[in-house]
Amino acid sequence: xxxxxxxxxxxxxxxxxxxxxxxxxxxxxxxxxxxxxxxxxxxxxxxxxxxxxxxxxxxxxxxxxxxxxxxxxxxxxxxxxxxxxxxxxxxxxxxxxxxxxxxxxxxxxxxxxxxxxxxxxxxxxxxxxxxxxxxxxxxxxxxxxxxxxxxxxxxxxxxxxxxxxxxxxxxxxxxx
Length: 176
Fold this sequence. Notes:
Among the domains are: about 5-75, Arc Repressor Mutant, subunit A (Orthogonal Bundle); about 135-175, no CATH class. About 45% of the residues lie in helices and about 10% in strands. It contains 8 helices and 4 strands. It has a two-stranded antiparallel sheet with strand order 1-2. A hairpin with a 2-residue loop joins strand 3 (about 160) and strand 4 (about 165). Mean pLDDT is about 80; it is low at about 150-155 and about 160-175.
């Protein structure tokens, strides 16, 4: 699964709204300027996110967009599914009729398991995790601190950040 610009920009918009949560609506024009996006494109993304129930539009003077729930309740899987669609790495995972070989295809099972693994990881990370990981911590590490049983309880997963490699709840220095 390659996340398109639609997915990346949609997540950026949601992170802006998460950072402003509880402080009133964010005006589309201001959000577009801060993110370097066209107002029309951003409005299209926000409309899609609104249809998915992730944001609300506030009309009138002082209006704009707000998250429909707390950043702690919105998972990355929710955002990416809304703007990207299903997490299937290949078309036959969601639609066995897509390929005449689907029934006997050994690789289809691998693609399906990998798609599920990606979705499960994204389910384990919330918008709040991302906005509170600005200290350079790996988002999955922040999620682990929040709920060790949700994501990688053995601490075997890792990610690369600007401050170095993180593995589970270990610090980058411990891995050197």
